[in-house]
Design goal:
It comes from Pseudomonas mandelii JR-1. This is SPOR domain-containing protein. By secondary structure, this protein is of the alpha+beta class. It has one domain. Helix content is 40%, strand content 23%. It has two helices and four strands, in the order E-H-E-E-H-E. It has a four-stranded antiparallel β-sheet with strand order 2-3-1-4, with helices on one face. Strand 2 and strand 3 form a beta hairpin. The radius of gyration is 11 Å and the shape is globular.
C-alpha cells in the first residue's frame, strides 16, 4: 500500500498523477489517499519513485491489510 498526503499545495498535482497513472485507490480520506494493494514491495516502491520523480508528489509505503 502507498499513502499520499493531500495537503493544499500539492492536492491537485497528486490527484492528477493518480489519474494519469491509473493507480488503484484503496481508500480516500479528507487529507490522504491510499493506493494499492500491491503483491510485491518492489511494485509499491516503483509507484512511490514514479510519483516523486515524474509528478513531484510525495508518498510512502505502508503495510497493507
Amino acid at each position: 500500500m502507498v499513502e499520499i498526503a493531500l495537503n493544499t499545495p500539492s492536492r491537485h498535482r497528486a490527484v492528477k498523477a493518480i489519474q494519469q497513472l491509473e493507480l488503484p485507490v484503496a481508500r480516500k480520506e479528507n487529507n490522504f489517499v491510499v493506493i494499492g494493494p500491491y503483491k510485491q514491495k518492489q511494485d509499491a516502491a516503483r509507484v512511490v519513485k514514479e510519483l516523486s520523480e515524474r509528478h513531484g508528489v510525495r508518498g510512502w509505503m505502508m503495510a497493507g491489510n
